[in-house]
Amino acid sequence: MAREGYINLHLAQHKRSKTPGDSDQMMKSRQRFLNAGYYQCLAESVAELIKQESICAVKTLLDIGCGEGYYLQYLSQIKAIENLNLIGIDISKSGVKLAAKRHIDAQLIVDSAYNLPLFNTSIDVVLSIFSPLCPKETARVLKPGGVLIMVGPGEQHLSGLTTHIYDQHQPHQGNFKLIDEQGLFALKKSTNLQQNISVKKTDIENLLTMTPYYWHTSPEQKKLLSSLPVLITPIEFHLRVYEKISS
Question: Which of 106, 110, 140, 159 could, after both became Cys, cross-link 169 (CB 3.0–4.6 A)?
Answer without folding.
Answer: 159
